[in-house]
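Hey team,

Sharing the Stage V sporulation protein AE run so nobody has to redo it. Sequence (118 residues) first:
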Amino acid sequence: MLSMFFWAFVIGGLICVIGQLLFDVAKLTPGHTLSLLVVIGAVLGGFGWYEPLIDFAGAGATIPITSFGNSLVFGALQEARLHGLVGVLTGMFEVTSSGISAAIIFGFLGALLFRPKG
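Structure output:
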């Protein structure tokens, strides 16, 4: 059980270190860094390498933004098998819609409940 927490921390931390290096060393903007991490997750998911990482690291691989790219590709491939080319588009939205909806709803509720200090 303790090793599961350890590896989640290490893998999640490594993903964050990669993002920080892209931001600091490569001088990428936050938007470019975010987009690149999503693309990296999508490419790893497309090759089937992200699922074994999730099995190994658990939340260390599912929480970072790379998991969003993996989810997009996973949904697209799954629905493409069932519905062809149309499934590529609908699959991406179907798999990620609950997370995006939750982010919008909780962001809105947070904006209603709290005042910014700016």
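The two ends are 43 Å apart (CA to CA).

Ping me if you want the raw files.
A.
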